[in-house]
Design a protein that fits this description.
85 residues, alpha+beta, OB fold (Dihydrolipoamide Acetyltransferase, E2P), four-stranded antiparallel β-sheet, 2 helices
Length: 85
């Protein structure tokens, strides 16, 4: 079941862009977005390399990303390969 979902998600993300609302900030370069039909996606931001939450300045990096996009509608576009499950 997980493999099927991952395969379908990979195919969808390779061909589509979609809109979603940012509902959580994991760390400075990772967000969680929720679509209108309640699908949730964890997304790594391309071209952003910020410290993880527990590293030096990780809290400030997370706060910056949160101030920038938390609670906002965003357009998600796949660029590159899906690297995480």
């Amino acid at each position: 079941m997980k493999l099927t979902f991952a395969l379908i998600l990979s195919i969808l993300l390779s061909t589509l862009s979609f809109r979603a609302f940012v509902v959580r900030i994991t760390d400075g370069d990772t967000i969680v977005a929720l679509t209108n039909d309640k699908n949730q996606f964890t997304i790594r931001l391309e071209g952003i390399d910020r410290p993880d939450y527990k590293q030096d300045f990780g809290y400030k990096a997370k706060q910056f990303t949160s101030d920038f996009c938390f609670g906002k509608e965003v357009r998600i576009e796949k660029s590159g390969e899906v690297q995480y499950g």
